[in-house]
């Protein structure tokens, strides 16, 4: 099972919202929507692994870190993201990372839990 | 932006993912007996939301390209119509001049901005009328539906493909930017509405939105000048309006004073006035904000977005308080925009 990690991205959220709208108008069943999301997980994981080929560097100061359920959550401040083409600076960024090696499925729920919990934990 | 020069991979990636997903689930849809149409709708909704989020740069669907082409044509057409309308004989009081072409922020704000009423001359002079009201640029089509009550519903088709029916409930003042010399009715256009409402000074208070003001009398344009009209005029006809503008409503005077105050006061008071009787608070707020923020949004680095990176980690290393991150396959949303990476290496001190 592919990581459900990417559901909380622009792409994933817009898909979920669209599916929700269709469910509301009863054009599809929730079950079908779930299937679509699972398919999305597969597609995005594959696409990221195969179609993307760029590197990014970043530097900043670490504000908080958390490791829970094999999910790392970091909050960094004053970060610069550097790619060959451009530089992006942000005051604050939250990084959520699932284990890239093992096949453990990192569900969206886990990620969300870490998202929310970290807020309570550190702030 | 520079990224486009090096072919930003994000739009392509997203398009690929969308296409992959749609194709894969087509079978699922058919198995469930769901029509292909729904599948297409899902795709459209999905793409539209991505467009709306502005997180992806250069994410053009075919529809959007077609719309952009259409927009340019429309602008030219509208400008021509402006001229035509001015020269029309002024028997009808309705000499409507389309608003200046606004730089509507993208195509999304159409609905809010286009709460304009185009009066088709209910029961008044037959001729005239039906000048096309120029809506903000991004609107591709609009139609006017005249209901039996004389209310005009405007059917607007936004670039999203969604259709909106706008029911004018407020009073909006149309300001003419050019003056047809010798036209009887001076600048102000009066619109009759079935639902007569007292002039809402706070309504449609945006620089971009024109206001149509309702007056009981059909003929004489007893323009009750709304203070907002004065506030928001962009191209007010010079010198002709002031003498004709009478203020009928009571709350008007305050807003011009507050115009000098901070924006926040305006908004608060406008909201209060809204509650007096208006329904469409949102019309006012969005245009207010959008008027100010059009260029700001683009330039401003820091949005309200939570800058988030969702990825997988290869290795996380720490030595005393020095952390090193080895990440991969990530999607980032920074300053409102989306980025992707296959590998990311970072350093931070805790």
Automatic annotation (TrEMBL), chain A:
PANTHER family: TRANSCRIPTION INITIATION FACTOR IIA SUBUNIT 2. InterPro entries: TFIIA_a-hlx, TFIIA_b-brl, TFIIA_gsu, TFIIA_gsu_C, TFIIA_gsu_N. The keyword Transcription applies. It is found in: Nucleus. Keywords: Nucleus, Transcription, Transcription regulation. Residues 3-48 form the Transcription initiation factor IIA gamma subunit N-terminal domain. It comes from the Eukaryota. It holds the Pfam family TFIIA_gamma_N. Residues 59-100 form the Transcription initiation factor IIA gamma subunit C-terminal domain. The keyword Transcription regulation applies. Belongs to the TFIIA subunit 2 family. TFIIA is a component of the transcription machinery of RNA polymerase II and plays an important role in transcriptional activation. TFIIA in a complex with TBP mediates transcriptional activity. TFIIA is a heterodimer of the large unprocessed subunit 1 and a small subunit gamma. It was originally believed to be a heterotrimer of an alpha, a beta and a gamma subunit. Interacts with NCOA6 general coactivator. TFIIA forms a complex with TBP. Its main location: nucleus. GO terms for biological process: transcription initiation at RNA polymerase II promoter. GO terms for cellular component: transcription factor TFIIA complex. This is Transcription initiation factor IIA subunit 2.
UniProtKB/TrEMBL annotation, chain B:
Residues 207-303 are annotated as: Disordered. GO terms for cellular component: transcription factor TFIIA complex. SMART domains: TFIIA. Pfam families: TFIIA (PF03153). Keywords: Nucleus, Transcription, Transcription regulation. Residues 207-254 have a biased composition (Low complexity). It is found in: Nucleus. Its main location: nucleus. Gene3D superfamilies: 1.10.287.100, Transcription factor IIA (TFIIA), beta-barrel domain. Coiled coil: none annotated. One of its GO terms (biological process) is transcription initiation at RNA polymerase II promoter. Residues 255-303 have a biased composition (Acidic residues). Belongs to the TFIIA subunit 1 family. This is General transcription factor IIA, 1. It comes from Astatotilapia calliptera (Eastern happy). The gene is GTF2A1.
């Amino acid at each position: 099972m592919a990581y459900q990690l990417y559901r909380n991205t622009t792409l994933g959220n817009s898909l979920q919202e669209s599916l929700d709208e269709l469910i509301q108008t009863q054009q599809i069943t929730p079950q079908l929507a779930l299937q679509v999301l699972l398919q999305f997980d597969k597609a995005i994981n594959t696409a990221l692994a195969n179609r993307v080929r760029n590197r990014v560097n970043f530097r900043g100061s670490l504000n908080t870190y958390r490791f829970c359920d094999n999910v790392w959550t970091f909050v960094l401040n004053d970060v610069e993201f550097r790619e060959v083409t451009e530089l992006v600076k942000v005051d604050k960024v939250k990084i959520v990372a699932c284990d890239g090696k093992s096949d453990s499925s990192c569900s969206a729920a886990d990620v969300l839990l870490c998202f929310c919990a970290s807020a309570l934990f550190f702030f | 932006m520079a990224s486009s020069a090096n072919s930003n991979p994000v739009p392509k990636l997203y398009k690929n993912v969308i296409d992959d997903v749609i194709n894969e689930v087509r079978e699922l849809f058919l198995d469930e007996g769901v029509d292909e149409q729904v599948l297409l709708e899902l795709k459209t909704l999905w793409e539209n939301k991505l467009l709306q989020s502005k997180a992806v740069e250069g994410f053009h669907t075919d529809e959007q390209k077609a719309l952009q082409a259409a927009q340019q044509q429309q602008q030219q057409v509208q400008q021509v119509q402006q001229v035509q309308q001015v020269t029309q004989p002024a028997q009808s009081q309705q000499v409507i001049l389309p608003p200046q072409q606004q730089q509507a922020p993208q195509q999304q704000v159409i609905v809010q901005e286009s709460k304009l009423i185009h009066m088709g001359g209910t029961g008044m002079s037959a001729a005239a009328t039906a000048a096309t009201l120029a809506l903000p640029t991004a609107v591709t089509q609009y139609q006017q539906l005249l209901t039996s009550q004389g209310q005009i519903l405007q059917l607007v088709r936004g670039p999203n493909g969604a259709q909106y029916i706008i029911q004018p409930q407020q009073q909006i003042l149309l300001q003419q930017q050019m003056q047809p010399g010798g036209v009887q009715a001076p600048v102000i256009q009066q619109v009759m509405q079935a639902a007569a409402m007292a002039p809402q000074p706070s309504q449609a208070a945006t620089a971009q939105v024109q206001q149509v003001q309702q007056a009981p009398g059909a003929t004489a344009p007893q323009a009750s000048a709304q203070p907002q009209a004065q506030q928001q005029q962009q191209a007010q006809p010079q010198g002709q309006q002031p003498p004709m503008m009478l203020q009928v409503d009571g709350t008007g005077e305050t807003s011009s004073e507050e115009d000098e105050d901070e924006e926040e006061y305006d908004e608060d008071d406008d909201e209060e006035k809204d509650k007096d009787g208006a329904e469409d608070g949102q019309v006012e707020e969005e245009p207010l904000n959008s008027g100010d923020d059009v260029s700001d949004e683009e330039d401003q680095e820091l949005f309200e977005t939570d800058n988030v990176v969702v990825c997988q980690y290869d290795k996380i290393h720490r030595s005393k308080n020095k952390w090193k991150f080895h990440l991969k396959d990530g999607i980032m949303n920074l300053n409102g925009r989306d980025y992707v990476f296959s590998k990311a290496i970072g350093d931070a001190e805790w």
